[in-house]
Amino acid sequence: MTTDRRCGAHAICEWWLYSLLAVLVFALGSGGCSGSRDDRAGTRLNLLLVTLDTTRRDHLGCYDREVGTTPHLDALAGDGVRFDMAISTSAATPISHATILTGLNPYQHGVRVMYAEEGYRLSESVPTLSTILKQQSWQTGAFLSSFTVSSFYGFDRGFDEFDEGLTVPADEAFARRPDGFWDWPLERNQRRSDETTDRAISWINQTRQPFFAWVHYWDPHDTEILPPPEIVSRFVASHQNRHEQKRAVYRSEVYYMDSQFGRLMDALKEQGLYDETIIVVVSDHGEGLGDHGWWYHRILYQEQIRVPMIMRVPGWPPGVTIRDLVRTTDIAPTVLEALGLEIPPETVGLSLSGLAHGRSEAPRVAYADAINLFDLNATILERRPDDALVYCAMNSKWKLIHRPTLAGKDELYHIAADPGEQVNLIDSEPAEARELKQELERFDGFIVKPFGEARDPDVIRRLRSLGYIGNE
Ligand SMILES: [Zn+2]
Fold first, then answer.
1. What domains appear along the chain, each with residue ranges and CATH number?
2. Distance between Cα 159 and ligand 1 center (Å)
3. How big is the CA angle at 59 (ends 57 and 61), to the nearest 5 degrees?
4. How close is the Cα of 444 to the center of ligand 1, in Å?
């Protein structure tokens, strides 16, 4: 009898055990979460990456209260960690975005230019946040707003849903001009942030978890597609001169983009996902708006490559500002570490978790470049001849801008004392310049010939006629 009772108890235990195993197997078989938000392991957080195209750091209220009107981005900074000196690898959209998605410098990930015969596509062998997370069973979706982050650049790899926001296929979205350069007709190659936000929210609301969503906003890039008139009119006034109006339109676009970002945050909160989601907000580059005599981007002064960067990671202290120099290469390893995933060995970026928790770390050195000379989309040669090939190395105090094809045109700034880069110290501080030049050489970014020159004699002829390459 005793034995029977034990067998009976054992059988009941076995029944419970097998029932429990069956539930676990079912849950794992359906992605480990089966739609419930409560049964996920701690590290299987969602990831929301929001890239703010062409958005200057000083146009976010949490960076400059005089200029910025961005209550929703400011609120995220209050809940998370704000990086005050975040440096991008480029002031051109696909190049910078490839770094954000990979943690690699441009010479590693393969996107060096907007367009040439080669050198514009993300290398197939490079792991990205999307390929890594998809492999680990995250649902992956991209909701984008312009051609410049499209499948044309290879950014679709690893995404279950890749919503480019284009009205034509990506490889039909540009046209070669008679002068040899390339045009992107922006009126059909971009969409406003309200449409992109609609698509992203719809996907987030119905997708299973964990998910990785990349949302790309483009509004501040240009004036082809504007916010609703009632928004623009809050910023633009008839008494403003042309330049003031241009800056006012830009501010209205940043403000409108922020309102859409706010909708995205509201959707996360309504779904109970805000505290289960790593949120990263970063700009790919800034905009000149007249600083250093230039209105657009593609060069390497601070208004171009010192970008706003905010991260909210569950477990990190809220409302923290980090003043150490960090890089956009640091985003991918930070996120992968926070998700408990392996960081690819080639990654040059370093996790920001230590800084976020108040630990001091070895100072970082940032790299950036602008390969305008070999970019068929850069109509730069006529406008800014000093910016054909530009390289930058920067540490916590000093910044070197190096132009290998133009003797005597290098610049050195003491960024801590001269954040607006007004006083070039290249002649008076040769030791600092030499040290940063050596840092640049330790990177591997120098380009000495056009991409794919052997296959495009027209490019060679054009560059030669402009005096940029010899007759060899
Ligand atoms: Zn951009």
1. 46-364 (3.40.720.10), 370-465 (3.30.1120)
2. 21
3. 100
4. 23
54 Cα–ligand 1 center, Å: 5
Residue found by looking up tokens 């010939």 in the block: 449
Q: Which two tokens stand for residue 159?
A: 């995404």
State the distance from the centre of ligand 1 to the C-alpha of 18, rounded, in angstroms: 54
Query: What amino acid occupies position 318?
Result: P
pTM: 0.87
Report the C-alpha gap between 133 and 356 in whole angstroms: 23
Q: Are 249 and 223 in contact (CB under 8 A)?
A: yes
Asked if residue 277 lies in contact with residue 264, where contact means CB atoms within 8 angstroms, the answer is no
CB-CB contact of 450 with 460 (8 Å): yes
Cα 39 to middle of ligand 1, angstroms = 38
Report how far ligand 1's centroid is from the alpha carbon of 44 (Å). 30
β strands within 245-305, DSSP E: 277-283
> Per the structure block, which two tokens stand in for 216?
């790309």
Percent of the chain with pLDDT over 70: 83
Find the 423 Cα to ligand 1 centroid distance in Å: 27
Q: Could you read off the pLDDT of 114-173 as tens digits, one per residue? A: 888 889 999 999 999 999 999 999 999 999 999 999 999 999 999 999 999 887 777 777
Convert the pLDDT of each residue in 412-434 to its tens digit: 999 999 999 999 999 999 999 99
pLDDT level of residue 79 (50, 70, 90 thresholds): very high
For ligand 1, the distance from its centroid to the CA atom of residue 362, given in whole angstroms, is 30
Residues whose Cβ atom is located within 5 A of ion ligand 1: 53-54, 93, 284
